[in-house]
Amino acid sequence: IWINDMKMRSFSPTMKVPVVKEEDEPEEEDEEEMGHAETYAEYMPIKLKIGLRHPDAVVETSSLSSVTPPDVWYKTSISEETIDNGWLSALQLEAITYAAQQHETFLPNGDRAGFLIGDGAGVGKGRTIAGIIYENYLLSRKRALWFSVSNDLKYDAERDLRDIGAKNILVHSLNKFKYGKISSKHNGSVKKGVIFATYSSLIGESQSGGKYKTRLKQLLHWCGDDFDGVIVFDECHKAKNLCPVGSSKPTKTGLAVLELQNKLPKARVVYASATGASEPRNMAYMNRLGIWGEGTPFREFSDFIQAVERRGVGAMEIVAMDMKLRGMYIARQLSFTGVTFKIEEVLLSQSYVKMYNKAVKLWVIARERFQQAADLIDAEQRMKKSMWGQFWSAHQRFFKYLCIASKVKRVVQLAREEIKNGKCVVIGLQSTGEARTLEALEEGGGELNDFVSTAKGVLQSLIEKHFPAPDRKKLYSLLGIDLTAPSNNSSPRDSPCKENKIKKRKGEEITREAKKARKLGGLTGSSSDDSGSESDASDNEESDYESSKNMSSGDDDDFNPFRDESSEDDEDDPWLIRKDHKKNK
Fold first, then answer.
1. Weakest-pLDDT range from 35-39, 82-86, 396-400
2. Using alpha carbons only, what angle is made at residue 405 by residues 400 and 410, rounded to the nearest 5 degrees?
3. What pTM value is reported for the model?
4. CB neighbours (10 Å) of residue 228?
5. Is the domain covering 39-334 a CATH 3.40.190.10 domain?
6. Smallest Cα–Cα separation from 436: which of 408, 407, 397?
7. Which ranges in 12-145 belong to alpha helices (H)?
8. Domain boundaries, the chain
């Protein structure tokens, strides 16, 4: 039996589980011992004997190793040079062979069968995919589509093709094409090669219209009705929720992915995902595997998901075993045998401790200001719940980034030492901060003038998007106030009442305090002089209000909790930067 007794107990609804008495302490120890059982088995291709050994030891789950894949009858066309030089290892050649073999079969509904690559990091999914494309290219199927989660991965695709000796296969980015025929002159007359695209680009649409106004129509026209080339859905586990089940509606992207497969029934579809068969919901658009649909026990994907989720992890293991048995799934990963680890303690510098303490004070003040602002506008309970959810989420991300930042210097030091010793250094990133960097690039018109602080970006984004303040544009629109007209020429209905004056002053107090807090918590380590701020604030309150009345209402659209009207230090005010950027546009 491929699953141990404890798994069988939890999986089988008919087996009675004996009640464990409180005094049965030794049994608990036995159960803990079972957790240390080997769950992986060393992997070597069983049915295919070509290619050089993979550079590192590879394993597969014990449940998958208990079944053997089908016999190999397909002969690859990949050159002997590629095989003999080890540009594709035996493991990668096995996946390519089984994929090509599976692509020669058809499902009961007439669609060509697909293949799922579930290999983990280090086994070389990229080279395997490149090998599948190369194999088909050699057989005169010279057009291929490669979908992934980021446009940057196009360069990895080009590298993988080049590394296996297929440098003559060109890779084109879909987003670089103009809307229209891809094979036309204004798109460079692209008639063969690989078109690389992101999942989100599939739903791209031209505003000007035309026959090929959507990216999907462009691709369908380029492929043609009888297209029998390769379509790769890479990193499909990251494109989750493409086709949600239940009450939620399918996403546009999900529908586009399904439509592409339905419109090209002869296409050779490859799904690649490190967690391919571990999360059933991520398999939503893998309709070419033939697990559900015509000729299967499950008419719809929803029937399959209900059956699997009701029975838990064991059911997915059985599904994975069945797929391997039928030659449509392969999943290996690098072995951790012989791997050692140690935890390195990073000593914090005084400047870092000082900066961290300032950051804590900043968040304490920010929490107070959020609370005051919510009370000031009489925020309803639902709004408060959403606000605090965003606040504490940003709070966690902020301090996570600070913790990561504290390790960087020591990591660089360790890496340099190991490189001197002739070692290869691989650094795993928890998060890259790419989104914030892209935002900064957009704000700076495509240029970065300074180092991008991800932690600062988290706080700034929180305040810009979720600080409780009325929508002034909407309010003025309802009152019929012209935002372009100066407020000193206002009619009697525009003049605020006494109560509004008080609220205005309170709001300005909050902005002054927040500006002061931002200086206090600056991540550059600079300190600010806080003495006498409270008295200055109260002394200048009236004059601040009078001067604010002379501002145009257009400049006062966004409530700015950073802004201190009495301060001249506006160089790094995110609201002013944002407005200047808008004006420049």
1. 35-39
2. 130
3. 0.62
4. 17
5. no
6. 397
7. 25-34, 62-65, 80-84, 90-102, 125-138
8. 39-334, 356-419+457-584
